[in-house]
Design goal:
The structure holds three protein chains of three kinds. By secondary structure, chain A is mainly α. Chain A is built from eleven helices and no strands. Chain C has a domain of 88 residues. Chain C is 31% helix and 23% strand. The chains are: A mainly alpha, B alpha/beta, C alpha/beta. Chains in contact: A-B, A-C, B-C.
């Protein structure tokens, strides 16, 4: 038997210790925890995920570099200097030069501009289109929903790459807007599905029912309940979609359908470097490294955001 | 009677962002062979955590059983067992049934496969023998057409049937101890009554002990031999069913009994109710945890935690009112059996 | 002279389309009346249609057939202004204290939501009203800036009540308001509801499966089984002398403190049939210990056996003679 705890003897108490005073109603319902807002709580949980925070700061750094380096660099990214072709990394050219003598350090950051811009813009475009489309389908429901979802199913059954290649042939241009259009024209379909199902789920929740019983107009229900409760899902989705777009762009540039010289992107740089891979591996190494690093960062940050914004995980 | 299970100084904590949530605080009790012990209390009082600790079912990162805790099953400390021994005991010597049969059964396996799986992990039996045993078990839990039901998936069964199937799985290896965590909460009254009758019959027939975790005092008075009332991670009162219902001594037990609507004198009169909500278990609570809501609260209650006052071999309560210095307080009218008239 | 009826429901049906062209007859030919100022309860087991009934009454679900008269007017023929009044005067309290409050809104915003639609108040007055309402349900004004996840189940349920009260309603559908709460908290909420009824003259439709709580709070009770009403009566006669075999079985199954009563319990065999495929004739005939040939052919309608005590059973006289 473990030690038995006993109450102290009778004389161990102060007088008045045993007078019934009753329940303290003010104390019985006070908060033991500090007030936390929804976003405050999410931020706290995001901060706990060290990897996600590191990814966030690394991305911030990369973004600043893509803006700053091409502006501050002594070299112009498009300027050829045939005297310094194919130089290995040195104090003058940190990442070396390519076969036309262009400074690779400047080019990598210039390419980063294009790659990240395409990634972020692409994700934002599909999110916006998907939200509107999915929202409309969920809101009207019935046959409208049916029709809109069948269209989504048909669109998403067309192979992505085929669409992109056809688009760039039809439009006969390889500018960045064309590239974006080609990549997003069917890319919004999964977002639309996601938003629709989330909105349907919310519209069946009891708080929306309460609002309907009180006669709150539909538009207000959408603005005050449906959209705020879908927002976190969309934010997470955008973060997860950015690396997909960066990768698609890299792939397209790699096969020659993407950004055209003298402008460049990480994919185009890697493609150019591939020709010299055996003798000048650094030409491919740096752009590939940044593609991988950026994609990894977005994925890690997305994981962190998803955990931070998931109301089921809150304690 | 022989002691089957003995829990000593069990403390369990959960780590949350705001600090350490002490869900179970220094709880000791025992279960005899062939008896039913009920753990009663409101949500968050630690009754489920206690029962899960016995099976060591708490996730390693979330629920931490504090050092100094011991759970002896037939004299062997469950908390010190290695994985191999633990898996021998789990599901065969000690079994558990849960509130939600839909999530605790595997939706992709037939009922028959789930029962035979449990049999074959614990005993060397051929598949055919295991299936025969499974059918026998389904018959035992009074599922009609047991032979056909073996091939059903959980979603093809109704709530009551699923609960029966879960009991069949739990009983597959003739356990000595069955832990039933709110086994009838999700069911309708008529189904609930069927299931309790079934459990009672099985308990007598198989001679097992049951730990019943519930918040429903009606079921407890009907079903249990002994009762432990838990509040904020501690046992505040323990006793036989007669002692708890006829002669309760802790104000929290009084409050629980008095808030049952059948006890109120008139329709639409105010029901007895407690103020406030149970304390946040994040707080250290270095005093009586019930003090803030107790209508008999005394200054001492906010200074020191009361130790258990032993009232009989089986009856004890942790309350300062039972201290010799305290004023004598009668059991409120309407509950208990002593001062009814 | 009888008290005026607030709601008159006649032969209300609500069917849901189901998979494979099936139809779930969730509510099938239900008639009842609710008097001003009373508490009318619908009891029954899960799937009996009591929740659907309450939701159809408030127009959350459109009705399939039948009529709902509110203050003598058919609810689907209300004018715009009348409909707005209907939506203000008739409110709802929900079962799940977790999903009935929007997790992104503060308690204050939640309570103000309906107020913005129906009352033209400046923000200061609204905040003040929120504080009054919180006080009325036993909470303090500083709850207004908190978020739902910071509150316990009982506190959330009281916020749900405050939200309904903000509309200055006359009628509230209480859909299992205490099912998800702990015993000691249940009593708090029920007391609050009783106090509010007395102070504000509210009428309740109380939907629950908790028979002892229903007995405590109701004036009249309707017992539902598989989409139909099987018995309607004042509370005391119903509990003293239930007449329908289902009601008898249901009441005998209540686990009660202090009486070990497994002996006299009427044990129903089998499970509740699916509302997609109800048995022919009387819906209870497949489980009824007294079912006769007639019960399996024609479905009984509600008959007044004693003043105010209606039973839908062919053999009611015989069995209760």
């Amino acid at each position: 038997m473990s030690q038995i705890k006993k109450n102290p003897p009778s004389d161990a108490f102060a007088p008045g210790d045993f007078e019934i005073v009753g329940a303290d109603t003010a104390q019985s319902e006070r908060f033991a925890r500090r007030p936390v807002t929804y976003w405050g709580d999410a931020l706290r949980r995001f901060r706990q995920n060290k990897l996600a925070v590191a990814a966030f700061f690394l991305l911030l750094l990369i973004t600043i570099m893509t803006i700053a380096v091409p502006m501050l660099s002594p070299y112009d990214y498009a300027k050829q200097d045939l005297k310094v072709r194919k130089q290995w990394p040195s104090a003058d050219h940190w990442f070396g030069t390519d076969d036309l003598g262009r400074d690779l350090f400047t080019r990598v950051w210039q390419g980063g501009r294009v790659s990240i811009a395409i990634g972020v813009l692409g994700a934002l475009i599909v999110a916006a289109v998907g939200c509107v489309y999915g929202g409309i389908a969920a809101y009207f429901g019935g046959w409208v929903d049916m029709l809109m979802m069948r269209i989504v199913e048909i669109l998403s059954s067309v192979p992505n790459l085929l669409v992109i290649i056809m688009m760039s042939i039809i439009l006969d241009s390889s500018s960045i807007p064309t590239l974006l259009l080609a990549m997003t024209i069917t890319g919004w379909c999964p977002v639309a599905r996601l938003v629709r199902s989330q909105m349907l789920q919310i519209s069946r929740s009891e708080y929306v029912m309460a609002a309907r019983v009180m006669g709150v107009p539909p538009l207000q229900i959408v603005l005050r309940h449906m959209i705020p409760n879908t927002l976190s899902l969309i934010i997470v989705n955008i973060t997860f979609r950015v690396p997909g777009f960066i990768f698609s762009e890299a792939f397209l540039s790699y096969v020659g359908l993407g950004v055209q010289p003298p402008n460049t992107s990480w994919g185009a740089l890697a493609s150019a470097g591939q020709a010299n891979l055996l003798f000048y591996p650094y030409m491919m190494l740096f752009p590939s490294l940044f593609i991988a690093l950026t994609m990894l960062c977005f994925t890690l940050m997305g994981d962190g955001l998803r955990d931070a914004l998931d109301p089921k995980l809150r304690r | 009677m022989s002691e089957l299970l003995k829990v000593e100084n069990l403390s369990v904590s959960f780590l949350s962002y705001a600090g350490e949530v002490r869900a179970v605080r220094d709880v000791s009790f025992h279960v005899d062979a062939r008896e039913t012990l009920a753990l009663v209390g409101e949500s968050g009082c630690g009754k489920t955590v206690t029962s899960k600790s016995i099976m060591r079912l708490l996730g390693r990162t979330t629920g931490v059983i504090q050092p100094g805790s011991h759970i002896y099953y037939k004299g062997e400390d469950i908390l010190a067992m290695d994985k191999k021994r633990l898996s021998q005991i789990r599901g065969s010597e000690i079994s558990m049934i849960f509130q939600d049969s839909m999530t605790s059964l595997n939706p992709t396996m037939t009922v028959g496969a789930q029962i035979t799986e449990n049999i074959r992990t614990h005993a060397r039996v051929s598949r055919a023998d295991a299936l025969r045993r499974a059918e026998e078990l389904l018959r035992m839990v009074e599922i009609p057409n047991p032979h056909e039901r073996l091939r059903n998936y959980p979603h093809q069964l109704s709530g009551g049937m699923r609960q029966r199937a879960m009991i069949a799985i739990a009983l597959a290896m003739d356990p000595s101890l069955l832990i039933a965590d709110e086994p009838t909460t999700a069911l309708d009254v008529t189904i609930q009554a069927q299931l309790l009758d079934l459990l009672r019959g099985l308990k007598d027939r198989l001679g097992m002990s049951i730990i019943l975790v519930t918040h429903d005092l009606g079921i407890v008075s009907d079903f249990a031999d002994r009762v432990q009332v838990m509040y904020a991670g501690r046992i505040v009162e323990r006793g036989t069913v007669e002692e708890i219902f006829q002669n309760p001594r802790h104000p929290y037990t009084w409050a629980l009994l008095r808030s049952i609507p059948g006890m109120a004198p008139d329709r639409k009169s105010r029901l007895y109710s407690l103020h406030g909500t149970p304390p946040d278990l994040l707080l250290p609570l270095e005093h009586c945890p019930f003090a803030a809501r107790c209508e008999y609260c005394m200054p001492i209650c906010k200074k020191q935690p009361p130790a258990e006052t032993v009232l009989s071999d089986t009856h004890g309560a942790a309350c300062w009112l039972l201290h010799p210095n305290a004023p004598r307080v009668e059991i409120p009218r309407g509950i208990g059996g002593v001062n009814r008239d | 002279m009888t008290e005026p009826y607030l709601f008159e429901v006649n032969d209300l049906c609500r069917y849901f389309p189901a998979k494979k062209n099936g139809i779930v007859k969730a509510v099938d030919g239900v008639s009842f009346r609710i008097r001003q100022g009373e508490t009318f309860s619908l009891v029954g087991e899960s799937g009996c249609g009591k929740t659907t009934c309450g939701r159809t009454l408030l127009g959350v679900y459109p009705k399939t057939a039948g009529s709902i008269l509110w203050k003598g007017r058919e609810t689907c023929q209300l004018t715009r202004a009348e409909l707005k009044q209907f939506k203000r005067e008739n409110q709802m309290i929900f079962q799940d204290p977790y999903s009935c409050l929007d997790p992104r809104m503060t308690i204050g915003t939640i309570i103000q939501e309906g107020m913005r639609v129906h009352f033209d108040l400046p923000p200061r007055a609204r905040d003040q009203r929120v504080a009054e309402l919180l006080f009325k349900v036993g909470l303090t004004a500083d709850f207004a800036s908190r978020f739902p996840h910071e509150l316990s189940g009982g506190q959330r349920q009281r916020v749900g009540i405050a939200r309904a009260l903000a509309m200055e309603p006359s009628f509230i559908v209480c859909d299992e308001p205490i099912a998800a709460l702990d015993v000691s908290i249940q009593a708090q909420v029920v007391n609050l509801m009783i106090d509010l009824q007395r102070d504000l003259g509210l009428t309740y439709l109380f939907i629950s499966h908790d028979l002892s709580m229903v007995r405590h709070i109701s004036d009249r009770i309707g017992v539902m089984y598989l989409g139909t009403l099987v018995e309607v009566s004042d509370t005391d006669p119903l509990y003293d002398r239930p007449m329908h075999p289902y009601t008898q079985a249901l009441f005998s199954a209540i686990p009660a403190v202090g009486r070990r009563q497994s002996g006299k319990r009427i044990r129903l065999e089998g499970e509740i049939p699916s509302p997609m495929d109800p048995p022919p004739g009387c819906r209870f005939s497949s489980r009824c210990p007294h079912a006769a040939a007639q019960c399996r052919q024609t479905s009984p309608s509600l008959r007044e056996l004693e003043p105010g005590h209606l039973v839908a059973c062919h053999r009611a006289e015989e069995l209760n003679g």
